[in-house]
Amino acid sequence: MTVQIQQMLLEIDDKSMQLENQKTHEEQAGKDFSQEIQLLKSENEKLTVEISCLSEQ
């Protein structure tokens, strides 16, 4: 192989690794957002029940 081809292969490997890291980061961010949404929904339910109880008094 020529030096130019080797350099191109190294660049391709580097870009592939960057994309894989970005994908992993985005997947983790998506999971984090899902967990945060679930926590907020749970908190919303608790507050709704609390408001309902307070308005009945």
Describe this structure in words.
The structure is a single chain. The protein is mainly alpha-helical. 95% of the residues lie in helices and 0% in strands. The protein has one helix and no strands. The longest helix has 54 residues, at 3-56. The model has no long low-confidence stretch (mean pLDDT 96).
Summed over residues and divided by their number, the pLDDT gives a mean of: 96
Tally of helical segments: 1
Give the CA-based shape: rod-shaped
Strand count, sense and barrel status of the largest sheet are: none
Low-confidence stretches: none
Question: What proportion of the residues is helical, as a percent range?
Answer: over 70%
Structural class determined from secondary elements: mainly alpha
Order of helices and strands: H
Number of strands: 0
Estimated share of beta-strand residues: under 5%
- How far is the N terminus from the C terminus? 82 Å
Q: What is Rg?
A: 25 Å
Protein name: Myosin heavy chain-like protein
Organism: Trifolium medium
How would you summarize what this structure contains?
This is Myosin heavy chain-like protein. The protein is mostly helical and 57 residues long.
List the helices and strands and how they pair.
Layout: H1 3-56
Q: Key features?
A:
57 residues, mainly alpha, single chain, 95% helix, 1 helix
